[in-house]
Amino acid sequence: MYKKFGKRAIDIVLSSIGLIVLAIPMCIIAIAIKIDSQGPVIFKQPRLGRYGKVYTMYKFRSMCVGAEKDGVYSDDNDSRVSRVGKIIRATSLDELPQLLNVLKGDCSLIGFRSPLTYHPWPWEEYTEKQRKMFELRPGITGWAQVNGRKTVEWHDRIAMNVWYAEHCSFLLDLKILFMTVFKVLRNDDNENVGETVKKEYAKSQEKQLANE
C-alpha cells in the first residue's frame, strides 16, 4: 500500500512545500550561477528512471558548459567546476531543482540514484536482478547514498538499490531522510574518489550471476 499510494502522496506534498519554501533561495542561487559563469542556470540530463524509461533530470549547473565531454568523474580539484558550483555541490544545493522532477512524477524524494543512460552501462546490460531497483522511481537520495554515496563501486550501489526496492517502507524512508540530513551537513562521501566501475569486478559478478 505504501509503495503504490503513500509514497507518491508524500512526494507530492513535500515537493510542493519545498518548491514554495525554497523559491527565494533557489532564485538567489540561479542569479549567482548566471553572474558567475556563462551558460544556462539549469543543467538538464537524460537519466534512467522507473522501468528504464528515460527522463530529463534537472539540477543547478555547477560546471562549465560541455564539461561532460571530458569524462563523468569529478573531484574537489576539477577545474570544470565553477566558483558557485563548488559551493552548491558541497552543500548539495545543486539538487534542489529535482523537486520539480519529484512533483512531475519522474522521481521520488527517496529511491535509487538514477544513473546516466550510458554509465555505468546502458539499460540493455543490466541483469534481471539489477533491474529490480527500477521497479520504484529513482530518488534525490536513497539507501546507497547514505551508505557510501560516491565512494561505493557501482555493483555495490546497485545491490543496495535492489535491497531497498525489496524492503521499501515508510519507516525505512524516514530513516534514510534523517541519515541524508546528517550526511549533507557533514558533506560526507560527496566527491568521487576514482573510477567506480571496475572491469575485473564486473567480470567476476557476471560469472557469479551466471551460476545463480
Name the helicity range.
40-55%
- Distance from first to last alpha carbon: 31 Å
Task: Provide the number of structural domains.
Answer: 1
Number of helices: 7
* Total count of strands: 4
Rg over C-alpha atoms, rounded to the nearest angstrom: 17 Å
Q: What portion of the residues fall into strands of 2 or more residues?
A: 5-15%
Shape: globular
List the uncertain runs: 199-212
Reading side by side through the largest sheet, how are the strands ordered? 1-2
Class of secondary structure makeup: mainly alpha
Query: What profile does the largest beta sheet have?
Result: 2 strands, antiparallel
The residue-averaged pLDDT reads 87
Order of helices and strands: HHEEHHEEHHH
Question: What would you note in describing this structure?
Answer:
- The chain is mainly alpha-helical.
- It has one domain (2-211).
- Helix content is 44%, strand content 9%.
- The chain has a two-stranded antiparallel ribbon.
- Strand 1 and strand 2 form a beta hairpin.
- Helix 1 (2-21) crosses helix 4 and helix 2 (23-36) runs antiparallel to helix 3 (83-90).
- The chain is globular, with a radius of gyration of 17 Å.
- Mean pLDDT is 87; it is low at 199-212.
